[in-house]
Each structure stands twice: as C-alpha cells, then as structure tokens.
Amino acid sequence: MKAWTVALSLSLAGIAAAEEPAYVPRAPLAKLDLHDGDTIVFLGDSITHQCLYTQYVEDYFYTRFPKMRLRLHNAGVGGSRAWDALLRFDQDVAAYKPKYVTVLLGMNDGKYAEYLDDVFTSYSTEMNRLLEKIDACGATAVLMTPTMFDARAKRMQQPGGFMGPKAVTFYNSTLAYYGAWLRDTASERGLGFVDMWGPLNQTTLHERRKDPAFTLIKDSVHPGAPGHVIMAAAMIEDLNLPQIVSEMKFTLQDKKWTSTAESAEITSLDGTADGLSFTSLENALPWVLPEDAQPGVRLTDLGQKFSRQTLTVSGLPTGTYTVSIDGAEVTRATGEELQAGLPLQALTKAPQYQQAAQVAELNKRRNEGPVKNLRNEWVNFQQLKFLQSQVEKNPADEAEKQRLADAEKKMPGMDERVKAAEAAAQAIEDDIFKTNQPRQHRFEIRPVAK
C-alpha cells in the first residue's frame, strides 16, 4: 500500500511539474521596423546632448529613406542618470509617442569610480523602472552600452580633479560591466541592443599601435566628432539597417548593352562597343557627414560599409574612361576598375554626393541651433528637480534653498521656449526634405581622348 501511495505521489508530482509553464526565451530585437510617421527618441546624458551621433544617424535616415518622414527627437541632457531620465520621461519622451527609444545612460550613474555594488544596484533598479515606463508608453527600448572612458586621456590631463588613481584605472571596466548587464537585459526582455563601448575601445587600441597618444575622447568622457561617427556606425550596424544606397550593373554582350539595378531605375540606355550612356533615378542618396566628422568616416570606412553606391560596367575594351554625370566629369577609371565596381559614394564631385552634403549641412545647422536650444531648456528642468530633492533631504540648508530659488526663476516660459525651438527645428527639417529628394541623372562613360 505504501509503495503504491509513493508511486502515485511521484506520478502526480511529475504531472504538476509538467503543467508548470516552462521558461520561454525571447529573441532580442533583430532590426527596426520603420514606417512613415514613426518616432524615434534618443534618450541620454551629455553625450546625447552633444547632438552629434544623433545628428549623424539623422543624416542616415534623411538620405537613406528620403520618402519616409520620421520624427527624430533628441532627449539628451548633460549630467543625466537613469533617475533624472525618469523625472522628465512623461514630457520629454512619452509625449512624442515613440515607436523606439534608444537609451544611452550609465556614464554618470557609475559615479566615476571603481565598481561599487550599491551604486550598480541603484543604477540597475532605476534602469528597470525606465524600461517599464518605455514599455508602458507603447515603445520598444534599444539599450546602448555606456561609451568608453579613456583613462589614458585622463592621465594626459593636468593632475587633480575629483577622480583618484584607482577610479581612473578601473572606470572603463566598470562601464564594461554595466554594458554587459544591458546586453543581457536586452536579450532577456526582447529589446534592441547596440554596443558602443566595444567599437570605441577597439578603434582606440588599433590607432594607438601607430600613435600612443591617440584618443577619440580628449576630456576622457565626451567623444569628439570622429568618436560620434563610430557610435552612429555602431547603431546602423547593430540595428541591421540597410547598407546599400544603390547598385547599377551594365554588361556588353553580343554587341548589346543590358542592365540590372537595385534601388535604382535605369532608363534611356544607349551604347557602343567602347562606351555607354543612361539615365538613372536612385531611391536614396549616399550617407555624407559634415567636414568635422570626416576623420571618423575614414576610421570606420563608413562609405564602403554603410553607404555602398556602386556602378559596375563589364565588357569595355582595355583603357581609361571618363565618367560624367549631367555633363560634368566626376572621375576617371580604367575598364578593370569599372568592371570591379566603381564606388560612387566616394566621388565628392558627383551631384548625389553634393546633394547629400547639403542635407548634412542643413541638419548640422538644425542641431547646433534649435535642437541644442531645446536640450538646454531641459538642463534647467533637471537642475530644478535635483535641487528640490536636495532641499527635501536637507531642509535646513539655506544655501541649497537659495540655489533652488535661483533655479525656479529660470522655469517660467519653458513650455513656450520648447515649442519655439521645436518649430524652428521643424522648419529646417522641412528644408531638408526639399533638398533630400532623389533626382534623375544622366551618366556617360566614354574612352579618354588620345
């Protein structure tokens, strides 16, 4: 009887265990699913407030998807931690009804110290609260690792400051730990993930083999424009966004020219045994960045990796050929180079490149003007909230009370100033969408006159 009872109990226990829900792993976000009218919010700290990597990603969207009007909102504030982002979340993030929210926080949360468990616990707790709020507003978060802290750049500065030698030595490793947790959190929750820390560190290591003093981050915390190009490229790569602008292929066979194209429409194809001409309407423009970003373009090989615009011509006799667009010569190439594929995105004389450069300059003006003005308004808001919390903790501190009173004086009219900055940014973006529309171009490939 006892044996039967034991067997029955074990059997029922097995059934109960089988009925318990099994752990079902979730797939991280593979790529962005974007449609006209969608909003992306770039949430972050001073590195986002710099309006550089966000600007370069905007340049990508403006040139790669000229027919798609996305709403791109920078929500970076200098000094922000996850705690600060929570305080402005409803007005600065949720109010824009985002589809995706990229999150670049952690640099300030780690308190510029070696790893401290209580500090990380506070950070991870606030970040999880932030992710819950992003989910509650109907958006998907894209977690991004904190960027690199450059200890060598810090050591090359004048001695002193608030960081001791131990903190300088270990803070980059602390940020790596935070980033590993973010990667695992993104995987567990099925969110997007971008590794910023790895590419910045790897590029720095590579370049220091040639120049030991090389840095992307002169003040040790805030990357310069080239570093922000590396960050923007990491976003395009890790979010699996399209890397091809267009591919146009022409082949001479049996005295007849034929063509195939991706992301372009070819018309009016005409040719002879030693040359051809055609009209092309491409769907996009090359990804071109402002002049101060060009060192980063070279470090990332950005054009070849993320902005391929290739013209391939097979069947021409051996020799050198002029390549003209709209009647102006843009380059010369051998028949072998044309057959291998000519990278149009590298031709600064090409009208497509020049058009994309105009887009980049307009967007630079947009970011350095109204977008920066908008972000500076939120600096005042963040300072106000911080001082309010300090006064709550120390109600007898008269100096803190005075600082709070001074901060309160900056707040009247903030809503109107925010709206004015947004309207000014919108006006420049309207000009961008007049400038970024693809145009027909007439190509001619002819042998160089002897």
Describe the structure.
This protein has 450 residues and is an alpha/beta fold. It folds into two domains: 39-241, SGNH hydrolase (Rossmann fold), CATH 3.40.50.1110; 244-450, no CATH class. Helix content is 48%, strand content 20%. It contains 15 helices and 14 strands. It has helices at residues 2-19, 46-49, 53-64, 82-92, 117-136, 151-155, 165-189, 197-208, 225-238, 294-300, 302-306, 335-340, 351-393, 398-409, 414-435; strands at residues 39-44, 71-76, 100-104, 140-144, 192-194, 244-253, 256-262, 264-272, 275-282, 308-314, 320-325, 328-334, 342-343, 440-447. The strands form three sheets. The protein has a five-stranded parallel sheet with strand order 2-1-3-4-5. It has a five-stranded antiparallel sheet with strand order 8-9-14-11-12. A four-stranded mixed sheet has the order 7-6-10-13. Helix 3 (53-64) packs across helix 9, helix 4 (82-92) packs parallel to helix 5 and helix 13 runs antiparallel to helix 15. The longest helix has 43 residues, at 351-393. The chain is elongated and about 90 Å long. The N and C termini lie far apart (107 Å). 36% of the residues are buried. Residues 1-18 form the signal peptide. Keywords: Hydrolase, Signal. Its EC number is 3.1.-.-. GO terms for molecular function: hydrolase activity. Residues 42-228 form the SGNH hydrolase-type esterase domain.
